[in-house]
Amino acid sequence: MAVPRGVEAASEALRWSVTAFGRHFWAWLTALLLTQGFLFWIAMPLLSALLRLVLGRAGIDGVNGTSIPAILSNPLATGALLLFTLAGISFIFLELALLATMAHMYFEARAVTVRGVLRAVWGRLPKLYGRQGPLLLLYMVLVLPLSHIGVASDLTSSITVPRFVSDELQKTAGGTVLYWGTMALIAYLALRLVFTFSFLAATPDTVYGSMRDSVRLTRRTIQGWVMLALVGAGLAASTVLAVVAVGGFVPVGLEQAVTGGASTATGLTLTFLQAARFVVAGLLAVAVTLFVTAFHRVLTRMPIRLRPREQARRTTRAGAVTIAVLAVAFQLPRAAGAVGAAQISAGPGDTEIIAHRGYTREAVENSVEALEAAAGAGADMVELDIQEAADGGLVVMHDTDLKRLAGVDAKVYEMTTPRLRDLTLRQNGYTARIPTLEEFVARADELGTTLLIEVKPNGHESPGFTERVTAELERLDPARRHWVQSLDQPLIEEIESLDPDRDTAFVVGFQLGSLPRADTDAIAVEDWSYDDSMLVLAHEKSQRLFVWTVNDLGTARDYLDRNVDGIITDSVEGAVSIRSSDEEGNALTDYGYRAFRLARLL
Fold it and tell me: Where in the sequence is the domain holding 463, given as residue range(s)?
């Protein structure tokens, strides 16, 4: 019998998946809540607590580039990290395999029991830890979360390309091609491998065999129908959440009209919306899994049949109400944690807007013109980068290589200060020259703008570099208005010890775990590494917490809501505008921003 093609196969798969979704709706919802509840409120908190406890006993705050050698040299810390990693990978596999296994069981009209599903999924776990397991691991923790094509685990939802990496790459033509080419390749791989877990759940295939069969099955037309179904399901889920979000305007508006504020209504409504998003996102994963599984069975001529409707509907109304209550209860700890973190600061408007390399949308980065543009846009501070030239002078420049901005195949440390100042920098249609630190500080003082000076060692500094930087800052800024920061922890702590009256910050590019220990006045963490517990701990230690590089305005609003001490951003004017609207206290506008951000699932 001929294999159905194109629209016929997609239509049949859609019909079967919609029928199975409706017929077994409450069973799916129960399974999702139990699975997610176990993962997020039992398993992962216990594992995270274990990891923090062991790392703390070993004198290590978290996993980052600096601490990895210390972790590897400590058997206890290494074992804890390995246990955490293996358990996390297993949970991700079990979550995805559980969905695919249940879908096949329903399409085979089998009785779906907790014991039966767990036995089937557990039996497939050895595939993950076999010789071909790394292939599946890469698919689960990189291809799925980065492409958003298929069903990814909630445990990998935070896996993404850090904005500071993607933004830096896209500042050059070659980097832009590399970034988008890589993302396109990942999306293509995700489309070709979309049936992998369906094959793993339904056949005795190996990991490689399942991937190979998925690639064979996903011809060009099949890829198109899969994409259309995924986008359609995402739009439907987002529409449901948007309707719920619109309904939230009623209680928020009523409280604002009666009391002049709406903090209680906003908090409760957003908590309900968070719970709704939790449930809808889970059901979206179910819908996608059912379609992919049905499509797989149709294309391979595997029989599909469902249990009679009266056998499928065994969940009572009381059980449905219990499930709904549990959904809200599961979400409350996360909402309460976010509120608690925000309440440790003094109040709205405390977050400083720090212009990343000046205002680079109106001038060349790290130029005096970028400093002036940032001050004009309302930035509280301006971040800049300094390096040492061949003659020991300090110049304002981020890249060690001059090719990107100056078109010169040379390094900063190879040229003297006068030669560097003669170069013309070009970026986004603007031109500028490389300023010295002295020139930059002088102009900042004229504008009344505070600087956040990042010291970037290029590895070719002459001895006594830290002392010279400290002395130069003392000469240029005896009042100590300006901050200094660095990714080099020994360097910034030495500056702190040499000049304890100057404000300093330790910059962390990657941190998994607790707030890093540093003898500085502030910690600057990258957006991907931020956790509310870091803000709480920093304030308990009388340190400030900055987050970089926050260019998405929705993310900036989240950090403003939490009252972090500063956000380093390229979107200076937008961040200042959001902070100003928050200070005006328009509850409906504030709720609208937050609610529709939560409603966006695509």
Answer: 352-584
